[in-house]
Amino acid sequence: MAAADEKVRLTAQHIVRTLATSKNAADDMIRILSGFDDRFSDLFPPSAASAGAATGDDRPATSKEESRDPTKEMSGSPSEGCALATVQEVNDGGDASEEISAKEERHGISEEESVKLEMAEKLVLMWDSSANSISSLFESSEEAAQYLSAVDDLISISSDQSLPTSHRVRAESSLQLAMSRLEDEFRNLLSQPTTDNSTPRHSASLRRMALSDPTPVASDTPESPQVGELEHSLSLPLSSEVVAPYIVVPDIIFDLKQIALRMIAARYEPELCQAYSDTRREALTDCLVSLGVDKMSIEEVQKIDWPTLDSKMKKWIQALKIVLNGVLIEEKRVCETIFESSESLKDECFAEAAKGCVLQLLNFGDAIAIGKRTAEKLFRIVGMYEALAEVLPELESLFSGHARVFVKEEAEGILSRLGNAVKGTILEFGNLIRGEMSKKPMQYGEIHPLTRYVMNYIRLLADYSSALNSLLADGDTYGSDQGTGASTAEGANLTPLGNCMLTLITYLETNLDEKKKLYEDEALQHIYIMNNLLYIVQKVKDSEMKTLLGDNWVRKRRGLIRQHSTGYLRASWTRVLSFLRDDGLVGSGHSNRNALKEKFKNFNNAFDEIYRVQTNWRVPDPQLREELKISVSEKVVQAYRSFYGRSKGQFEGRSAYKYIKYAPEDLENHVADLFEGFPGVPGNPRGREAC
């Protein structure tokens, strides 16, 4: 309303000047207007007051207008000078008025332009006053339109070389104040947070979480601002509440664009670009912090404990995808809409606003890439490598010119260092396998923790096969000729990742082969190797590793397990079976019975010892356990059954039970107790109790 009142007053002043053909006519007009509204009586003070005002009030100029202050050419402010001139016209009558009008026309300025300048000056000064400094022009669309119209007039007058210098200087002075005001309004609008009352379009965009190219709209009004939709979905969840406060609200883009148009027309591009980049740079940095990516130095990153660092690496991967596939695409769209009239500002403002956010992301990746290489970091580093490689084309397309070259070189350098970190960490993991030299054997031949750890670790490598095949393609990380024991034939047709897996598994097999020597019992060595080899084979067979290593590899390892099964039978039961041979038995005499007694006695003792020891041994895999029991039955129980049948007739009555401890069925029950991991008592098999 204040702006509207001022416009009415200036219009009335113009009427007075136009109609002032005589002093009486002017007095009559003033009296009529004052009767309508007593504020007009203050507009035209008596001549005595005019004489006093002509001396000027020496109001100090602001810092922005000091160098081009039009008050150095005339006393009082521009609006006061205009008012004094009007009063003088009234007092001097029609002749004076005609003289002033003629003078203005001689200097190339019409009365309409003069009034337009005065109105613009007054409006700018009014909004520059302390009373209006805390209010926003854009709280009222009507007041904003009036102010922007006044700015348009000032731009037009200040650039019109046909107008008197004094008028152009006055216009430039007011324009400086207006630009300062618009810059503040621009910053405040950009800083405006998203509220619960944001447009449905904005909310829907955030829910879709990633952004697409803008679709131009027919009209450029506050009701239909040029903003994009968030269309591409991300693989990671994003809460709209997290990102929403850092995206420019669509409702204000029209106002921002209107301010930008005036500042560009007034040649205030540097101030405009700085206002945009400063405000948005801070918002985008805050967005990163909300996503869990803090600004940290390389030294700070390298001092973080692993659980905390693991969490930060995970958040970095998510933030990278969200920011580059979403937030920055929308930022670029908004920037291009606001600075639609200036191609150079579009690129410059976006680059200055977004570069800091991008570098903060890249610097964290660099800190990880050059940090200490430990096995537990591998999969997070691979994840970071994959994420950066995925968004690299999008990152490059966001920028142009020198900024594009700079960002591309930085990102590609960090991607390369992350790749080297992946390869170095795999090498470190291989060294860890070979260097694991624990001297304490696993009790009862169970699966070694190293086997579980290594195979679970290698299995996870298959989840990153695409990236790892690319990184390992140079053959520098692992090959079949590095003393691993892996045959050239085995790795001949494998992918780079397949060769890497083969090498790591060969390291493990070699280590296990060394550890078996910690067992004094040769039979237990075979059980130990079988348990661990079968675990390796099962991990390969039940995962993507089977595709990478091939069926032939699996068949070969199963063949090794069978060899160790045969080795176990030979080491455990050869001596026992020697007592079941007919060596030394001749006929059916007394000496023959004594030999049989000795053979049964030796067999019983040997079998009892094996039973006592091997019931403690554990074969976790039920199928392998049953296969071993069947092998023992086929080799031992069957031989015993045959020997038992041939020898039992050599004893009479109950005396047979004194020497023959086990019937073949008893032996079957005892064999069923082997490899269960529970101690057994000879002569009292759990299998028989179960029956």
From TrEMBL:
Residues 45-55 have a biased composition (Low complexity). InterPro entries: Cullin_repeat-like_dom_sf (IPR016159), Exo70 (IPR004140), Exo70_C (IPR046364). GO terms for cellular component: exocyst. Transmembrane segments: none annotated. Residues 314-672 form the Exocyst complex subunit Exo70 C-terminal domain. It comes from the Eukaryota. The keyword Magnesium does not apply. Residues 44-81 are annotated as: Disordered. Pfam families: Exo70_C, Exo70_N. Residues 56-72 have a biased composition (Basic and acidic residues). GO terms for molecular function: phosphatidylinositol-4,5-bisphosphate binding. Keywords: Exocytosis, Protein transport, Transport. One of its GO terms (biological process) is protein transport. Gene3D superfamilies: Exocyst complex component Exo70. PANTHER family: EXOCYST COMPLEX PROTEIN EXO70, EXOCYST SUBUNIT EXO70 FAMILY PROTEIN. Component of the exocyst complex. Belongs to the EXO70 family. This is Exocyst subunit Exo70 family protein. It comes from Rhynchospora pubera.
